[in-house]
Amino acid sequence: MEAVVSLKALERAWEQAREGVVLHAEERVTYLNPEAARLLGVARERVLGRPLLLALRDHRLERLCREGGQARLELRGRHLWAKAAPGVLLLLDRTGEQQRLEALEESSRVLAHEFRTPVTGMLSLIEALQQGLEPSQQAEVLGLLLQEAQRLRRLVEDLPLTRVPGQERTFALEELRPRLERFLAPQLAERGARIAWKTPHTVWASPDAVYQALLNLLDNALKYGPGGEVVVESTQDARGVWLEVRDRGSPLPDYEPLFQPGKRGYHAASVQGSGLGLALVRRLAAGWGGHAYGRAWEGGNAFGLQFPYDRG
Asked: Where is the PAS domain (predicted)?
């Protein structure tokens, strides 16, 4: 009697478990709990008593059941940890953990990319001071060092990685304008450039992610473009909202390769950089279900972001 009660209690625990449980004998399914059915994408009533492969639908899992051991694998869009013992297969959904690891890796890349330019500049100025300069030159270099230090401080204050990530909501694109203009003010002054804003639309996304993507696009336009006016304009059609940064540089021969990590256009040959900026922009856009792109327009080059209506 005690054994029967214990078995029922164990089955109740399995039914509520966050870990998938599959029991099998003679390569046929004898039990699977709701979480296992969810992870495997099957209906329990259709696979009980049927061949194991019919429930697992994956030869890697079937082999794991035969040989035992554990493995990490991607199955139908999910990252799973699987462990097999005689007659038992345990499944744990690690998709959230994998996404957090990818977000951490992305954050590290963003930090490295955004901090590289001011740090490189400061190191060059410090080396110049070490080599010995005239008093008037020392004052000029110290002033430049102060500017780079202030730029680093603005990065720390404005970089969205210092805020809570993933806060998606509907917001007006104009909301980003003051932060971007404040951050880019020294670069605009140095290049003798200005930003013309034509962004009357609202979008559904993380404001910090859009801020970072738009900052990278504006930074590229100011670095590699001819200066003068840079236009930020949003439009809308049946496919969603489109947000573009347009400069009046010579049209590029190809845009798609620039979104690959480490790839840079021929206009960038004399400008220091890692070639990560547009790759990060595309990764950020994918996070809200959109995409990033580049194209020629009648006045030069446009790099843009798309925000779909239906994210499903």
From this structure: 21-56
